[in-house]
Amino acid sequence: MMKIFSVFGLFLLAFSHVYGQTVPYISSVSPLTATPTEIVTIAGSSLNGSEVFFGTAKGNIISNSDGLIEVEVPSAASYGPVSVHNSNGVAVSSSYFLPNWGGNISTATDYPFGTVNNIAVGEQYIYDLCLCDFDDDGKNDFVVASKENLDATFASRVIYRNTTATPGTVPSFTKVLSLGAQPAFHVDCGDFDGDGKPDLVVTQSAEGSEARNVEIYLNTSTPGNISFDTGNALELVLNRRDTLIRPPAEIGIDDLNQDGKLDLVISNDQYNDIDVFKNTSTIGSLSFENPILLKFNELAEGEAARGLKIADLNNDDLPEVIVSSFGKSDVFYFDNISTTDAINFNTGLRLISTEADQIQAIEVADLDSDGFMDIIASDGTTNHGELIIFPNNTTAAGSDIVIGSRLEFESKLFPFGISAGDINGDGKIDIAMGILEAGETNIDLFFNSSSAEGSFTFEKQSIDMGLINNRNLEIGDLNMDGKPDIAAVSKSSIGTLSEISIADNSGCLTPIINPVTSSYCTGVEFFVTASPATGTTFNWEVSTDNGASFSADGSSISNSLDISGYNGDLQVRVTAAIGTCSNLSEVTNVNSSNSGDPGTPNIIVTPTTVCLGSDFTLSSSLVADNYIWTGPNDFNSTDAAPSFENANSMLAGTYYLTIANTGGCNGQITSKIIEIDLGPPSTIVNNGNDDFCEGLTTELAISTYDGFTYQWNLNGIPISGATAGTYQASTTGTYSVSTTETATSCVATGTSYSVTQITKPTFIIEGVSATCVGLDRIFEATPDNTNSDFTNTYSWSFTNSSGTTTDSTSLTTTDTLSFSEAGNATVKLTTGYEEVIDCESLITKTVVVTTVPTLIIDTPDGIEKCPSDSLLLELPNDLASYFWSDSSTNYNTYGQIDPYTDSNPKVYTATWTDSAGCSDTSSVTINNYYDSNVAITSSLGDIIEGTLTVPEPTGFLTTIPLTASGGSNYLWEPTNIVSDSNGIDVKIYPKTINDVISLTGSDANNCNETVTVNLLIDYVAPRKSFSPNGDGFGFDCWEIRNAPDMIDCTIYIFNELGKEIWSGSEFVDDCIWDGNTYSSSEAPEGIYYYTIACDATPVFQPTGAILLAR
Q1: Are 278 and 257 within 8 A, CB to CB?
Q2: What are phi and psi of 552, to 5 degrees?
Q3: What residues have CB less than 8 Å from 988, skipping those under 6 apart?
Q4: Strand 747-749 relative to strand 733-741: parallel, antiparallel, unpaired?
Q5: Rounded alpha-carbon distances, angstroms, from residue 366 to 42, 389, 446, 597, 799
Q6: Which of 52, 155, 569, 975 could potentially form a cystine with 59 if both were Cys, beta carbons 3.0 to 4.6 Å apart?
Q7: Is residue 953 pLDDT above 70, yes or no?
Q8: 3-class state of residue 649 by DSSP
Q9: CB 59 within 8 A of CB 39
Q10: So what's the pLDDT on residue 329?
Q11: Which class for 570: exposed (0-12), middle (13-18), buried (19 or more C-beta within 10 A)?
Q12: CA separation for the pair 718, 709 (Å, rounded)
């Protein structure tokens, strides 16, 4: 996954610089876990003339060259990075070193602590502490900070010197220095001026009334005497946003940009940002550049970005800044993309978790030994408590950082401070956690029982520290026995004095002797070695009678014994004694012989200079039958000339060779230090963006130094002319830099870096090509060529015919635009990607804008309309839509008039829209003669809605009287049933039960209008019931009176289910239905229904019900 960078930091003219002196660089520390007094190999470059520190404890240098240091682990070593200090600067290891003491803890309940001692520090409300060897005497001192001390009679920064005299005894401390009463929040130490002495950093507490700043005190101590340049303390002011006074909180110290100086990071107690101070100090003089402000936009104002750690999460030699929001649920980290000139971080404020309850503190440690630092957090409140692990699932050095899902381990309520170290001496990182649960005096210990990479298991125990509410704590050796103790500060209340609790690690070492069995030549110096332990007395015993008796050998009380003075078969054992511990080892068997000493060879390395990535071979200057090789990282071989491929820093170190001839003894062991010429680091950082737009470049940079040349490669192929410290990458691919050392011709290619050139997105604007002035039109962007891995951005505007551009507020795929003037307008869409800078395309669409035309309704039939006329009204037939006032939607209409409701004159309207979307309403006025008054009446009754219902006569109906009125020149039809077709009063001779009579007459407006009347003769009378059983009672047939008069009529019979069961027509008498169905079967008793349908008189359709009884 590509990372998108928007760089914070100091933006200089160049991001690469040539240094006359190469700052020291640590490539590897091997092994990464060892006991005090063991030898550790540090490989790297520019290491000559160095001091080595494990935390702030100085190691004893055994050998030192430009590419290799062998150093003895000090007893005060703590879990953390190893640093190398020389005149060219400070180098800090990416990996953390873990001191262990070879403990033998059999069960989880057998934790290695005896008594807990409380030290009354005599101050109020101690909040924090740190362990540092300030005076270079090999013992961890401590300093405490009082957060809410508002009483000037008490000190808020107090330093206690470690005065423990004898290893393994109860730690003792003496207060030696107080540095003022201004409330202090956090304390830490680091060598900022490069003089090999840890300087003191204090953040001022927000509880004070003065400005809250950061204090740095220059260390001027000598062994046995702790002192600081208190008169010239450096006070750093945090970046202020607006007028906010931003109180500092936790402290982070590391070389962020590999320039050989320890930089300073300060988190915040009240606001959502942190400050990064670039170190510009020189020996004896402290100075820092103005701070870089890194803001956490994901946190709201007032949410404190307090928790802070610095660690290299992907082993690219550039440590990340890790921050948690205090009392909230968020953990973040910033990717470091610094170069030696500038400290830079990308905007990748990477969210690790939002699932926690309330993060109180964070720590980092490689808990599963996979080589990548995991993130630890205390999570909880007064009713909840958990230890949280965020596994680091990054797969390779320099690759993208991958943080896994959180793992939860239950703790006591309200966990707080965290510290990591190997408490029980098994070589695994354990965790101690402070507890603020009300009234609680215990802290939680999590003993690491993880068995493989990616595995995280712990055995939890608690230890009573004797004081309530142990807030912050530290793991470190406090009594020179090489075993990590625990120091914790209790949360006292204001007005009471605080104490420090120290749990003394009382675990005992059971020594193991190496070699387990061996043979050597008599007189040749030969050592057996026990597990090293600082401050421990080793009592050696040797048996020459196969273990029947052992005699003490007082020639050594260290962990090694020269037994070259013995002959024959021997058994050796040793007791390790310190304090109350005295454990005896297993027995080892050795043999001394005078048979054929093969001599002492020299080790030959071919070639003499071993370059990073090259192959090399070791060989002996003497020929023998047997070869025993050992070396770094558990290397062993019996080859005469072992060979090595692809040399790297893990192969650097001391190699040992013992030779022997068949049947002979082992000769004198010999050794040789093998250096791997690593050159300085060539870590590529991107000053631009991993994803960059076509047509642009992104600047890749490395730090360069005198004595080296550089060649940039693309996909493994050298780029012609690309030999500077920066390269403007313009092509997708994987870039690397090959560094050649001028003096040795060694070529080393550093880790690669991939970038991708992104094609600009293109879209098509969908929408009308013509529109009307003032009309809202929707335009939509549809993808043409876009990258689905990124999020598209949209910005709309339009330019009208006069050249005025109007920006839209729409940021989506659609926009609604309205044009205020006619002419050719241009719709514009600018689209890009949120994640890719300056990668936008401009897409346009021309729209013809017109004004609303004036349209007149055409009247080809004139504008005078009689009631029954259809008057044609027309608009142009090429419009997009029409809607007439009579609801017609055609381009024309024949206006219909309602003679009862219309008016004269009559206005007809049509609302229309043309192809450009222009819309208007046109109208025309018609002389509307809507009612002629020509009418038909009858003396038989009212004509209702054109129908005269003829009443049933007393006799047989022969004629129906009708009268014409309201006009002249009458014509009655049909003429064959009218007594006088032109008369006013006429008689009708009905032919059917529903004759239709029309009357045409000329009205006062000379309109010839026709009216009609339906003559409905509805006196047909069916019976209600009948009983077709032939019993002589009732009616055997269902009858309708005058049935033969029903001409062209059909009668239908239905049962109760609505099914037709019989029908009939052309009746000869009144008998209609005999009660049988179509199938001539008798219809059962029940209710039936009839309907009468007459062809000539559709209005006459009487219906009814019939009761059939049998």
Answers
A1: yes
A2: -70, 140
A3: 959, 960, 961, 962, 977, 978, 979, 995, 997, 1015
A4: antiparallel
A5: 19, 11, 14, 47, 60
A6: 52
A7: no
A8: helix
A9: no
A10: 76
A11: buried
A12: 13
Q: How far apart are CA 799 and CA 392, in angstroms?
A: 53
Which residue, 195, 202, 139, is CA-closest to 168?
139
Q: Which strands form 960-965's sheet, in the order they lie side by side?
A: 935-937, 960-965, 985-988
Q: Which residues, other chains included, contact 758 with Cβ-Cβ below 8 Å and sequence gap of 6+?
A: 691, 692, 693, 694, 787, 790, 833, 836, 839
> In this structure, are residues 699 and 91 in contact, taking their beta carbons and an 8 Å threshold?
no
Q: Whose CA is closest to 1038, among 1065, 1066, 1076?
A: 1076
Q: Are 75 and 535 in contact (CB under 8 A)?
A: yes
* CB 656, CB 630: distance < 8 Å: yes
- Give the C-alpha separation, 606 to 819, whole Å: 82
Q: Is the dihedral of CA 207, 208, 213, 214 positive or negative?
A: negative
Contact 511, 531 (CB under 8 A): yes
CA 537 to chain centre: 55
Residue 52 has pLDDT above 60, yes or no: yes
Measured distance between the N- and C-terminal CA atoms of the chain, rounded to whole angstroms: 94
Q: Where are the alpha helices (DSSP H) in 992-1075?
A: none
One-letter identity of residue 241: R
Under DSSP, the state recorded for 156 is S
Are 359 and 329 spatial neighbours (Cβ–Cβ below 8 Å)?
yes
Supply the DSSP symbol for 587: P
Measured distance CA(1001)–CA(972) in Å, rounded: 9
Half-sphere exposure of 199 (CA within 13 A, CB side): 30
CA-only gyration radius of the chain, Å: 52
Residue 323 burial (CB < 10 Å; 0-12/13-18/19+)?
buried
CA distance 460 to 62: 39
Q: Which amino acid is at 844?
A: T
For residue 16, is pLDDT > 60? no
Token duo for residue 171? 């730690």
Which pairing describes strands 305-311 and 57-58: parallel, antiparallel, or unpaired?
A: unpaired
Residue in 336, 256, 322 with CA at minimum distance from that of residue 686: 336
Contact call for residues 798 and 810 (beta carbons, < 8 A): no
CA angle 521, 523, 525 (to 5 degrees): 85
CA distance 651 to 659: 22
Please state the rounded mean pLDDT for residues 755-768.
94
Percentage of the chain modeled with pLDDT above 90: 49
pTM of structure: 0.69
Residues 679, 23: Cα–Cα separation, whole Å: 11
Q: Token pair of 821, please?
A: 């003037």
- Residues near 830 by beta carbon (within 8 Å), at least 6 away in sequence: 794, 795, 796, 797, 840, 841, 842, 843
- Nearest-CA neighbor of 167 among 539, 581, 719, 702? 581
Kind of pairing between the strands at 985-988 and 960-965 = antiparallel
Give yes or no for a contact between 459 and 108, defined as CB atoms under 8 angstroms apart. yes
CA distance 177 to 233: 14
Residue 932, classed as helix, strand or coil, is coil
Mean of per-residue pLDDT scores for the chain: 86
Q: Which two tokens stand for residue 747?
A: 């070529």
Let me know: does 732 contact 757? Beta carbons within 8 Å: yes
**pLDDT, mean of residues 146-167:** 80
Residue at token pair 């609604």: 816
Tokens of 541: 């015993």
Backbone φ and ψ of 231, nearest 5°: -75, -15
Paired sense of beta strands 184-190 and 871-874, if any: unpaired
Q: Kind of pairing, strands 753-758 and 691-693?
A: parallel
In degrees rounded to 5, what are phi and psi of residue 463? -130, 130
| DSSP-assigned states of every residue in 725-756 | SEEEE-SSEEEEEEEEETTT--EEE---EEEE
Residue 720 CA: distances (Å) to CA of 692, 699, 712, 725, 1042 = 22, 17, 8, 14, 119
Q: 656, 735, 737, 731: which is closest to 696 by C-alpha? A: 731
